[in-house]
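REQUEST FORM: STRUCTURE PREDICTION
Request ID: SP-0412
Submitted by: Lab K.M.
Chain count: 1
Length (residues): 253
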Amino acid sequence: MTGRFSLDGQFALVNGASRGIGKAIAIGLAEAGASVAVAARSIDLLEETSEEIARLGVRSLVISTDLRDPVQARSMISTSIAGFGHLDILVNAAGAALRGPAEEMDELGLSEIFASNFNGIALACASAGQHFISQRSGRIINIASLASLIGVPGRALYGSTKGAIAQLTKSLAVEWGAHNIAVNAIAPGWIATDFTRDVLAKPDVHARIIDRTPLKRIGTPDDLVGLAVFLASPASSFITGQIICCDGGYSAT
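STATUS: Completed
RESULT:
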């Protein structure tokens, strides 16, 4: 059974790997045996992630990437392939949070949040897809959100980008399934990260979240690691096109 979850000999790329969910998943894939390229804008933090991965006895590459730049979104894939020789797994964890009243949205905010949370991810998927189609195998794991599935006050723009990620996941799974490419998404609930620190620090908000969450706690980035390893491994070979919540039961209430 253990072998079904092994990633020995696999090569992965995780963007948004300098902190939070992306970093936890990158290290988790390495613990399962994969060599991992890590990409983000924060190069110093990214190098720390890479060093942690290397200490696990697998290879790691550092790729400075701003996914808001279409050229960098595509070159991130080609650089990973050039460094490893090929690529097996792409995890799209990069993104930005944006909160505010829906009636105050404007063109600049709309452009920036889609550039950060969707456009570069879609282009990375397209570039990785070309490689995966040629080798007739590949796994893509997108980080969606609880806001992909339900309405969250103050998150109209953010939720729209994550809804787009969910639909992209389903569409790619249908289109690329015949090439032995699995595309799935993880939809985290309330996870303690830099993005959520200010919101979760408000006692009334924190209390409301805990009250609605059946498991009665806030999640951590490590809570997503097992699911990510599962979706990257042979154990999930007949699963594609799914948006899987990791939210302590929040979406069930």
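NOTES: The radius of gyration is 17 Å.
Reviewed by: T.R.
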